[in-house]
Specification:
By secondary structure, this protein is α+β, with helices and mostly antiparallel strands. It contains six helices and 22 strands. About 35% of the residues are buried.
């Protein structure tokens, strides 16, 4: 009888241990925002890290932000989304209001459960007084619904952000060409995101070939792709040494003194950024070359088309580098992929 009781106790204890082990709480994911850097009047760079030793897969991670504390997926002002997995991830939040406090959390989703990091806050800087939005049109919307800020420089009204549209202003579609061979050989208007990665569009806009530029319908209605003469007008206005009507701006190659520094954004460049004195906010969106259709130099180079012909196959581009204070003016092939800045008609 005693043996039977002992056996029952052993079985019960074994079952209890097994049940306890199966119900043991799994390790919680370790999620934190490491830093918030490169804060300007309109953007900030957020870096986070997730560590999760559980066998359960993280299906999604990202950031949520708001102008109110206690931000979550339901009351967020904005969000960014990344795929699963552990490790570090970052996002540049753009189009923020100046001199405003924002609250941000990192999040992850696993087993249909949302886990948040500790909430952090930051305050955007005040816009310098010499940045003047265009009278009567502080923002402009393109046919895709993208919103652009404006800045008035050198008696011209410019869009601050690089163009992002996927349609001409008459509503017709522009070809999204991702394949290298097609990009090299097409004779039609085309666009692509850098590295064919949509995550690059928000910060850097699209890259377009010149066939899209010469359509005359790429910018929002009432706007046009900046011409070679308009680029010269801008460069000569902001440069400290070489002013308007100086022959240097008609040259090819690197010209001027410090115009690039005045036009570069303060953040977003590898190495040092610029002073962005006039709100032009030149960003290094890189390029897609015409020879191999390779993506190159995001973070290091900003390249923009100008809407003037040189000869049948070549057009001028503007080139700003992270290691150069001058701005370059070079001829380029129509199948090159560059950013676009629009100017008001």
């Amino acid at each position: 009888m005693r043996k039977n009781i002992s056996l029952i106790k052993i079985i019960a204890l074994t079952l209890f241990v097994a049940i306890f082990a199966s119900c043991k709480k799994e390790a919680e994911p370790q999620l934190e925002i490491i830093s918030i850097n490169e804060i300007s009047n309109s953007e900030a760079l957020v870096l986070a890290k997730v560590e999760y030793e559980s066998s359960n897969e993280i299906v999604e991670k990202g950031f949520v932000w708001s102008k109110q504390s206690g931000v979550n997926m339901e009351n967020k002002l904005g969000s960014s989304t990344f795929g699963g997995g552990s490790g570090e991830f970052s996002y540049r939040i753009v189009n923020l209001e100046e001199s405003t406090v924002y609250y941000v959390k990192a999040y992850l989703i696993s087993n249909d459960i949302v886990t948040y990091s500790k909430e952090l806050s930051f305050k955007t800087l005040e816009t310098p007084s010499n940045i003047i939005p265009c009278p009567g049109c502080e923002t402009i919307e393109d046919i895709d619904g993208n919103i652009y800020r404006t800045t008035y420089v050198a008696q011209l009204c410019w869009l601050v952000e690089n163009l992002k549209t996927t349609k001409y202003n008459d509503g017709s579609e522009i070809d999204n060409v991702t394949a290298n061979q097609e990009w090299k050989s097409t004779t039609s208007g085309a666009y692509c995101a850098y590295d064919n990665d949509e995550e690059n569009i928000e910060n850097y806009g699209m890259l377009y070939n010149y066939y899209a530029v010469e359509s005359g319908k790429l910018c929002p209605t009432g706007w046009h792709v900046a011409t070679d003469e308009e680029w010269k007008q801008l460069e000569s206005f902001v440069d400290s040494e070489f002013g308007p009507h100086t022959d240097v701006w008609d040259d090819e190659g690197w010209r001027g003194s410090d115009a690039a520094v005045k036009l570069k954004s303060e953040s977003g460049w590898l190495g040092s950024g610029g002073t962005n004195d006039y709100g032009f906010t030149a960003l290094p969106g890189g390029q897609r070359d015409e020879i191999a259709a390779m993506y190159q130099r995001k973070g290091e180079w900003g390249l923009w088309w100008s809407a003037n012909e040189i000869e049948a196959t070549n057009k001028y581009r503007r080139h700003i580098s992270n290691h150069e204070t001058k701005i370059a003016r070079f001829p380029s092939h129509k199948n090159s992929g560059y950013s676009v800045k629009c100017v008001k008609d």
